[in-house]
Structure formats: structure tokens, C-alpha cells
């Protein structure tokens, strides 16, 4: 059975016609044309497909598109600001060599973004724990931890400046 | 030899600096295009029907139901595809390979081998159609271990090769007089070593997309390390001239060596597209990356060495058997490289080595980071630790004493340059505070009596490039544009290591322009110069040298043009950061853009520098120092700290090099403690073909890594002395961990992975004795 589902992806409303069994991941990639979110396993094991749904990280391969109906979906494509400026996490990933092949990167960025949203000043342990569902096979994680720490620091400083202003 | 004259300046403007990798911007924004992101109009989905028997003849395949299923556009079996015997590993013909594969055969050699392929309008329909294909098998007796496979009378898996299920004739290396060496020894150590079947588990499952145009030209997007090899082998097997096959690869999600083969699905995807006249994309499921991907070769090794009481090794006798699985793939290369490597690492005059590679009815082993050497150096390094224990000396000292260096001959037959290994060991001893740590009070803490700490060191050396096994060639073209920007054209694939950034740095440095002005065009066999492929830790070394030569020519071209334009002798010109200066006349400058651009009566310049480089071989070295905690209650081993010390010659991009080292350590920890793709040796079935059951180290498992990169032994055959780094970090970490476990609990393990069960069993056995 096909259904029309309204997804609010990165702030834009998309009406997509999907089979009920279609995953959110396939819908994002194949119907909405947003291929930034990657498929590393399709069974919830690798975290490559992590997106935020109503602010919560989910494995898009494990959620049906119909379940996300009417919800706010955020993907890596929405991280950059409207003006094109990179999110501090994106910039930090570039500077610190946290992205090698880049296949895990969109998922890890979304997970990290959620992590910093909830906890702007995470300890190393909290960063490690936060990423425990995301597999990266290239980096040894070390540079990813560095990048997240550095982005957190930068985001806190920016926030403080904003508050003082 | 066509190496540029050595650059005597010791101040570098760009190389050696961790410039911001602009090529990464596409990865962090999600804009980067991987093959599975492409979806041309009218695209069909391809799927492979896989055998559920380990060894069988196909009596009959009935595809009529599948073909009749709505949405199915084509079905192919062995009756529909060209029957051309080919190398699964499309190495250039200068290498030893084994022609033992058909696209689809009338015989099945392992569970999971493809027997038919389907193209349909959706993935689901394609999947459903696979179930409708009926295959009638005549089952044959099968063998699942090399021991079974080489037993007299064992069923033959192939009718090619030297026979007896050998993939190639045994590799024998003899030097000196082994018997005399053993006679001179004060003591002899002998042991058996073995290792499981780790897989690369790159995050991007294998994927390709094929499309034919009206002129019968195939455009083929694929996630491969070797685009030109894929082009060559596709052309050969499909009977096309190479200019009728265009292979494209933009971003790829890792490869670690295994994406060097030309896979069954790649041929099938091309043929399905041809049959349907529509683009077809074929993407592995994660399960398929295990079953139909490539693993490291499982191995069994017997090693006997004689030692003198002063630590000298007097003789080395080794036999190794690699398990190739159902096809040869990289078996020959791995056997040759792995066996030869045992002539080296720790000096020994008298060696006798015997390397074999054997077919079994199991999934195919192939190329994987550390190519054959992970196995042999695991054994050599652990036995060295045993020797140190026997002698009552510090293993790091013993390893340093025996480390090969300048004056020794490398496994490739080339002289070793410098004393890289010694330097790595020395730096580690000091930096890791090795001596002090090892002499810490070892009595267990009474509140946690089951916790034991241990420290270990492992060493390795690895060649940059596959020479002399393969006669390699690096190529580059550097184009200077009319606005002064630079385009580097390279066939080298970007697996994620930062190779394109390093190449751009080399070009910018040699040419004398800003790094930001260089962009890289890659991944299109129609547009870039021929490339052998990204493997063997050779991209920076080999293609980097070619890029440096090309940039040097472009540099001369720019200065000649400026000289003519400004009427200043070329010898007086100097190009720095994109600005041409006249020596002795400060203030008189011209930008590259001004030199290149058109002016009245003169058209824009057309400057192309072309570089080709044929390397010999250089070796990188490493010593890994680790600290582990062993929980004798649970058998769990935790790696707490690692100090990898690497000699890479001249480092081009420190952060990228560190990143590769740290990633290699992650994979190496996995190999040593948890990773093993297990095949049931009674029936050939996969037992853990998924990321939950195949246990890799995750963020919580990673130790503190304190990477040290030395430039101790630059090799003149690489750009400014640069050598490779890609494979090295996975090699030394294994024995380092095994040695540290021994240090912690006094039990010697000679296999990987060393599981909690192994540890508990060993401790129990010791108690029982
Ligand atoms: S693709 Fe969803 S978790 Fe792996
Ligand atoms: S960068 Fe390749 S998997 Fe993480």
C-alpha cells in the first residue's frame, strides 16, 4: 500500500508517496533525493544513517517513513547555515582530520550535534559513550573526539559572546 | 631514473604542514557523491542469487518464473555470460596472478558464490525474483580448511593451478646455511602460530552502476581502488577496446586493499545493463560484503629459530600456509610478499622459508592492509619476545639489537636506507617510559586481585609500493591555467586517506604556488593519466614522485613564459607562493596569472607538465608500545594506551598520516582481540556475517593513542624522502598486544584473535597443572 507522507526535512516540507514498508533512510535517499545520509548496513548496526527526528537521534534505516510523518527530520544537509556557513562541527571535522572516507561522517555529525545540544561541555567519556552506536572504520575515532571537543569549545565561546552582547 | 634533482632547501612552505583538506568539505556537508548516491533516470536495481551449497556442479537453472515476474527486466545465468577465464585480482600482468574465475560458472565453490543475477525496477522485486530462480545442484565433497584441502585425495576445487588445491607453486626462499645456523645456536625456539579471518569492513558496502550509450560504450561507476584495472579487465572479458569502457569513481567509503579486485557483481552489473539497455545499480548488503567481499588470509605458520646467548639469531626456518578461500585473488601476491618478508625485520643470515597458498571451499580472501605480512610478523615478533624472556633481557632491547637497517638487504632485494626501525624502538622506549613501566610493582591490588597490567612492544617494516612483484608506474599531469590556478590530474583513487591533498601539497611546493590554488581532477579513466591503483602504501610515494616531476616541468614552463614576457633571463626568476620575483630586484614581480594570461598579440599560455615515475622500493618502519589490562575474572583484555612510533621518511600531511596510523591501530586491535569472520568448518556456512556479530572496536574500546611520527630514514626514491604509511600501523600492534598479554598474565598466545574464552581457558589450564 502506498501512502502520501509529509516529512519536514531540514525545515522544508516534502510530500512523498511511499510504500508503507519503506524505511525513512530509503525515502530520504531515493524519494527526497537527500543522499547525504548513508546506508552502511540497513539493519541498525552501524549508525551511518543517523538523523534527528523531532530532535532525537534515530537510525533512519530502522524507522519507517510513515512513522516520521509530520515530524521534523534533520539530516547532514541541514547542518550548514542558510548563508552557507559551515556548522562548527563540520569545520572542526575538516580541521582535525575527523573525516577520512567520509562515509560515517554524516551520521556521526548528527549524533555529535545532538550530543552537544544536550551537553555543551561533554567529558571525553561522554563523547565516547555518545558515539558508541556509530562505527567509523577509518579514523580510530581519536580525531573525531578531537573535533567534537574543539567544536564544543567553540560553540560555548560563541554562545557566551552572544549572551554578553 | 627520472627523479628530480634533490631540493636542498630545508624550509618547506607547504609539505609537512597539515593544510586544511578542502576535499573534505563535500564529506562534511553530505554533498560528496558516492556511487550509491547516483540514480540516473530509468535506473534498474541489480541483485545476485547466491549458492547455498559449498561445492557443487549446477545441473540446471530455471529462471522462467523469475523472468515472468512483473518488474523483472533481465536474468542472467552462466549460460548467458561470456565464458572467459580471468584474474579476480586485476593486477597488471607484471604480477603473478591466477586466472581461475568466470563471471558465472557452471560450478559453485563456496556458499555465497553468485549463480545468477537479476535486474528489476525495484530492489524488493529483484530480491523476490531471486527466490523464484530454481537451481538444481549436484553436490560435491568439499574442504573447509587448508589441512583438509592438501590431504592426498582431497576433492579438487579448480582444474587450473599447480594441482592439489595449491593456488601457486610453493614459494621457497633459502639463504645461508640453516643447519649450520641451528648448530651454532645456544638455544632453539619453535612454535606454531595461526590467525583468523578478519575482514576490512569498510563502511561503504561495495557498489557499482553501469550504463551503456548508443555507441556501445560502457560508463561504469564503481567503488574501487583500481579504476584502470577495472577498466582493463572489463574490456578484456567483455571484448571491448579500453576506450569503450569509462570507469568513474568519485568518493569511496574505504577499501583497505579489498576493493582492488574486480568483483563478480561488477561484471554482472555491466551485463545486466547491456541486456536491459538501462542503467543498473548493484549494491551489496552488509551481509554480502562479508560473504562476497574479501578477507585477510587465515593462516597457519610454523617457526623455528636458533639464538645465541648474546641475542643473535643464527637460523630461521619457517613454513606458512595461507587459506585463499575459493579463488586465488591476491593469494599469490600475499604468499610471495608474506613469505619474503620473513627474511627480514630481525637480522638473520641463514633462512629457509616455505610459503603456500591453498584453495578451500570458503569465501575468498584477498588484499587487505598489511598484505601477507601481518601474519608473518605476528609470529616473528612474538617469538622474539619469547627469546627475550628466555634470555632474561628487555624485549625492546633485543629487538633493537637485531633490527634490520642500513647495510641490510630488504625482502625485495634492495638495500635498506637508514636505521628507521632502531630509531622507532629508541623513541618508544623513551617516550613511553618503557623501562620504568615494565619495572613497576606487579603485585595485584588486593581490592582488585583479578586485574593485571602488562606492557608489550611489537615491530614491523613495510614496503612502499608493490615493486618488484609488480612493475609500478606513477603518473601525473599538472596544468597551469590562464588565471594562475593549477589543476593536477591523477588517476590515484581517494580512499579517504587524504592522498589527493598530499598530492596537491607536493605540486604546490614544487611549483612554488599557494596550496589553495591547486585543485585535483581524479577518478575518470577518460580524463586522467593511467594509474596502477591506490594500494601498497604507495600513492604519496609513487604518484607523489610523479606529481613532483610534473610540477617541476610546469614550474620551468611558467618561468620560461614569464622570462619571454618580461624579457628577463629565466635564471633570474624565482617563483614563490604564486608570485614570480626577479632576483636582486626587489619589488619587480609578476603573478603566475599575469605570466600565463593573454596580452596584446600573445595568446594565453598552454603549460602542461607531465610526470611519470617508476619506483624501486623503500621501507617504512614502526614500533608500537602498548599497555593492556587483563581481567582474569572475565578474560577481557583492554588496551589502555598505545604509542605508535612510525618512521615515514618525510611526512607530507602530519594530521592525515596520524589519522591513518590511528585507524590502523583500531583495525589491528580488532584483529588481535575480537575480529574474526567465522566459517563453520563442517559445512562452510558463515556464522557472523554482520556488524553486530563481527566485533570491531568502537568508540568506547579505543585506547589513548599517542602517535609519534619520525622522519628518521628518508628514502631518496620518494618525494623529498617521503615513504608510505597506509599499511604499517596494522602490523605491529598485534604482536605488541599479544606480548603485553603475556607480560600481564604470563600466558603466551600464538594466534589471533585472542578471545576472553582463550584467556580463561589458558588460565584454567595453568591452574589445573
Ligand atoms: S544503515 Fe542504519 S544503522 Fe547502519
Ligand atoms: S571516515 Fe571512513 S568510516 Fe569513518
TrEMBL record, chain A:
<dbReference type="Pfam" id="PF00111">
    <property type="entry name" value="Fer2"/>
</dbReference>
<dbReference type="InterPro" id="IPR036010">
    <property type="entry name" value="2Fe-2S_ferredoxin-like_sf"/>
</dbReference>
<protein>
    <submittedName>
        <fullName>(2Fe-2S)-binding protein</fullName>
    </submittedName>
</protein>
<dbReference type="InterPro" id="IPR012675">
    <property type="entry name" value="Beta-grasp_dom_sf"/>
</dbReference>
<dbReference type="InterPro" id="IPR006058">
    <property type="entry name" value="2Fe2S_fd_BS"/>
</dbReference>
<keyword id="KW-0560">Oxidoreductase</keyword>
<dbReference type="InterPro" id="IPR036884">
    <property type="entry name" value="2Fe-2S-bd_dom_sf"/>
</dbReference>
<keyword id="KW-0411">Iron-sulfur</keyword>
<feature type="domain" description="2Fe-2S ferredoxin-type">
    <location>
        <begin position="3"/>
        <end position="79"/>
    </location>
</feature>
<dbReference type="Pfam" id="PF01799">
    <property type="entry name" value="Fer2_2"/>
</dbReference>
<keyword id="KW-0479">Metal-binding</keyword>
<dbReference type="InterPro" id="IPR002888">
    <property type="entry name" value="2Fe-2S-bd"/>
</dbReference>
<keyword id="KW-0001">2Fe-2S</keyword>
<dbReference type="InterPro" id="IPR051452">
    <property type="entry name" value="Diverse_Oxidoreductases"/>
</dbReference>
<dbReference type="InterPro" id="IPR001041">
    <property type="entry name" value="2Fe-2S_ferredoxin-type"/>
</dbReference>
<keyword id="KW-0408">Iron</keyword>
UniProtKB/TrEMBL annotation, chain B:
<dbReference type="Pfam" id="PF01315">
    <property type="entry name" value="Ald_Xan_dh_C"/>
</dbReference>
<feature type="domain" description="Aldehyde oxidase/xanthine dehydrogenase a/b hammerhead">
    <location>
        <begin position="29"/>
        <end position="141"/>
    </location>
</feature>
<dbReference type="InterPro" id="IPR046867">
    <property type="entry name" value="AldOxase/xan_DH_MoCoBD2"/>
</dbReference>
<dbReference type="InterPro" id="IPR037165">
    <property type="entry name" value="AldOxase/xan_DH_Mopterin-bd_sf"/>
</dbReference>
<protein>
    <submittedName>
        <fullName>Xanthine dehydrogenase family protein molybdopterin-binding subunit</fullName>
    </submittedName>
</protein>
<dbReference type="Pfam" id="PF02738">
    <property type="entry name" value="MoCoBD_1"/>
</dbReference>
<dbReference type="InterPro" id="IPR008274">
    <property type="entry name" value="AldOxase/xan_DH_MoCoBD1"/>
</dbReference>
<dbReference type="Pfam" id="PF20256">
    <property type="entry name" value="MoCoBD_2"/>
</dbReference>
<dbReference type="InterPro" id="IPR016208">
    <property type="entry name" value="Ald_Oxase/xanthine_DH-like"/>
</dbReference>
<dbReference type="InterPro" id="IPR036856">
    <property type="entry name" value="Ald_Oxase/Xan_DH_a/b_sf"/>
</dbReference>
<dbReference type="InterPro" id="IPR000674">
    <property type="entry name" value="Ald_Oxase/Xan_DH_a/b"/>
</dbReference>
Amino acid at each position: 500500500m502506498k501512502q502520501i507522507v509529509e516529512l519536514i526535512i531540514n525545515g522544508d516540507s516534502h510530500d512523498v508517496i511511499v510504500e508503507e514498508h519503506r524505511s525513512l533512510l530509503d525515502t530520504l535517499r531515493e524519494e527526497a533525493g537527500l543522499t547525504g545520509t548513508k546506508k552502511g548496513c540497513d539493519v541498525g548496526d552501524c549508525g551511518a544513517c543517523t538523523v534527528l527526528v523531532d530532535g532525537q537521534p534515530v537510525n533512519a534505516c530502522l524507522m519507517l517513513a510513515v512513522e516520521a510523518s509530520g515530524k521534523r527530520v534533520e539530516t547532514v544537509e541541514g547542518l550548514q547555515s542558510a548563508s552557507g556557513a559551515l556548522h562548527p562541527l563540520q569545520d572542526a571535522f575538516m580541521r582535525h582530520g575527523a573525516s577520512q572516507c567520509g562515509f560515517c561522517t554524516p551520521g556521526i555529525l548528527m549524533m555529535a550535534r545532538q550530543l552537544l545540544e544536550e551537553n555543551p561541555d561533554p567529558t571525553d567519556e561522554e563523547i565516547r559513550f555518545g558515539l558508541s552506536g556509530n562505527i567509523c572504520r577509518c579514523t580510530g575515532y581519536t580525531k573525531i573526539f578531537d573535533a567534537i571537543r574543539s567544536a564544543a569549545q567553540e560553540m560555548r565561546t560563541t554562545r557566551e559572546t552572544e549572551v554578553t552582547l | 631514473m627520472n627523479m628530480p634533482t634533490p631540493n636542498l632547501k630545508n624550509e618547506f612552505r607547504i609539505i609537512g604542514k597539515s593544510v586544511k583538506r578542502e576535499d573534505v568539505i563535500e564529506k562534511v556537508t553530505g554533498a560528496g557523491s558516492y556511487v550509491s548516491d547516483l540514480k540516473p533516470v530509468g535506473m534498474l536495481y541489480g541483485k545476485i542469487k547466491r549458492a547455498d551449497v559449498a561445492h557443487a556442479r549446477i545441473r540446471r537453472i530455471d529462471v522462467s518464473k523469475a523472468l515472468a515476474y512483473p518488474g523483472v527486466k533481465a536474468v542472467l545465468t552462466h549460460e548467458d555470460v561470456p565464458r572467459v577465464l580471468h584474474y579476480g585480482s586485476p593486477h597488471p600482468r607484471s604480477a603473478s596472478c591466477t586466472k581461475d574465475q568466470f563471471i558465472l560458472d557452471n560450478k559453485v565453490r563456496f556458499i555465497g558464490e553468485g549463480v545468477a543475477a537479476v535486474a528489476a525496477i525495484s530492489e524488493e522485486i529483484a530480491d523476490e525474483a531471486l527466490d523464484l530462480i530454481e537451481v538444481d545442484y549436484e553436490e560435491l565433497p568439499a574442504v573447509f580448511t587448508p589441512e583438509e584441502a592438501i590431504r592426498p585425495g582431497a576433492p579438487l576445487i579448480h582444474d587450473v593451478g599447480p594441482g592439489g588445491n595449491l593456488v601457486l607453486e610453493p614459494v621457497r626462499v633459502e639463504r645461508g646455511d640453516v643447519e649450520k645456523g641451528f648448530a651454532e645456536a645456544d638455544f632453539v625456539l619453535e612454535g606454531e602460530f595461526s590467525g583468523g579471518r578478519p575482514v576490512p569492513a569498510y563502511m561503504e558496502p561495495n557498489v557499482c552502476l553501469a550504463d551503456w550509450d548508443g555507441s556501445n560504450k560502457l560508463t561504469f561507476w564503481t567503488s574501487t581502488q583500481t579504476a584502470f584495472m577495472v577498466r582493463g579487465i572489463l574490456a578484456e572479458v567483455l571484448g571491448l577496446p579500453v576506450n569503450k569502457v569509462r570507469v568513474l569513481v568519485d568518493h569511496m567509503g574505504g577499501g583497505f586493499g579489498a576493493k582492488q579486485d574486480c568483483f563478480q557483481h561488477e561484471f554482472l552489473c555491466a551485463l545486466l545493463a547491456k541486456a536491459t539497455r538501462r542503467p543498473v545499480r548493484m549494491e551489496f548488503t552488509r551481509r554480502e560484503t562479508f560473504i562476497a567481499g574479501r578477507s585477510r588470509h587465515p593462516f597457519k605458520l610454523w617457526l623455528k629459530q636458533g639464538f645465541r646467548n648474546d641475542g643473535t639469531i643464527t637460523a630461521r626456518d619457517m613454513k606458512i600456509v595461507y587459506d585463499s578461500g575459493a579463488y586465488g585473488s591476491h593469494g599469490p601476491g600475499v604468499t610471495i610478499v608474506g613469505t619474503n618478508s620473513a627474511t627480514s625485520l630481525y637480522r638473520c643470515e641463514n633462512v629457509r622459508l616455505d610459503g603456500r597458498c591453498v584453495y578451500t571451499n570458503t569465501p575468498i580472501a584477498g588484499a587487505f592492509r598489511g598484505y601477507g605480512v601481518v601474519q608473518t610478523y605476528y609470529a616473528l615478533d612474538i617469538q622474539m619476545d619469547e627469546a627475550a624472556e628466555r634470555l632474561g633481557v628487555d624485549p625492546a632491547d633485543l629487538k633493537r639489537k637485531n633490527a634490520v637497517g642500513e647495510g641490510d638487504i630488504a625482502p625485495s632485494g634492495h638495500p635498506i636506507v637508514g636505521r628507521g626501525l632502531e630509531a622507532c624502538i629508541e623513541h618508544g622506549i623513551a617516550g613511553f617510559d618503557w623501562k620504568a613501566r615494565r619495572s613497576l610493582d606487579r603485585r595485584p591490588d588486593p581490592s582488585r586481585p583479578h586485574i593485571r597490567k602488562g606492557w608489550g612492544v611489537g615491530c614491523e617494516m613495510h614496503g612502499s609500493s608493490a615493486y618488484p612483484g609488480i612493475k609500478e608506474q606513477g603518473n601525473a599531469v599538472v596544468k597551469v591555467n590562464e588565471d594562475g590556478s593549477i589543476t593536477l590530474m591523477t588517476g590515484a583513487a581517494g580512499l579517504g586517506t587524504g592522498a589527493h591533498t598530499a598530492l596537491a601539497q607536493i605540486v604546490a611546493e614544487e611549483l612554488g604556488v599557494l596550496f589553495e590554488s591547486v585543485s585535483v581532477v581524479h577518478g575518470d579513466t577518460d580524463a586522467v593519466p593511467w594509474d596502477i591503483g591506490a594500494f601498497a602504501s604507495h600513492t604519496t610515494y609513487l604518484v607523489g614522485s610523479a606529481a613532483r616531476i610534473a610540477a617541476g616541468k610546469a614550474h620551468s614552463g611558467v618561468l620560461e613564459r614569464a622570462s619571454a614576457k618580461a624579457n628577463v633571463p629565466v635564471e633570474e626568476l624565482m617563483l614563490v607562493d604564486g608570485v614570480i620575483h626577479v632576483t636582486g630586484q626587489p619589488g619587480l614581480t609578476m603573478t603566475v596569472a599575469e605570466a600565463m594570461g593573454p596580452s596584446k598579440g600573445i595568446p594565453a599560455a598552454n603549460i602542461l607538465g607531465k610526470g611519470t615515475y617508476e619506483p624501486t622500493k623503500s621501507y617504512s618502519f614502526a614500533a608500537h608500545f602498548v599497555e593492556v589490562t587483563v581481567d582474569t575474572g572475565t578474560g577481557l583484555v583492554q588496551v589502555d594506551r598505545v604509542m605508535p612510533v612510525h618512521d615515514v621518511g618525510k611526512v607530507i600531511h602530519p594530521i592525515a598520516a596520524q589519522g591513518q596510523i590511528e585507524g590502523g591501530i583500531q583495525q589491528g586491535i580488532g584483529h588481535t582481540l575480537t575480529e574474526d569472520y567465522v566459517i563453520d568448518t563442517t559445512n562452510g556456512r558463515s556464522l557472523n556475517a554482520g556488524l553486530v556479530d563481527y566485533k570491531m572496536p568502537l568508540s568506547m574500546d579505543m585506547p589513548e593513542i599517542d602517535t609519534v611520527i619520525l622522519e628518521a630514514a628518508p628514502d631518496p626514491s620518494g618525494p623529498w624522502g617521503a615513504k608510505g604509511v597506509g599499511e604499517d600501523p596494522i602490523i605491529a600492534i598485534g604482536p605488541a598486544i599479544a606480548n603485553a598479554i603475556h607480560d600481564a598474565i604470563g600466558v603466551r598466545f600464538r594466534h589471533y584473535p585472542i578471545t576472553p574464552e582463550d584467556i580463561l581457558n589458558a588460565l584454567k589450564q595453568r591452574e589445573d597443572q
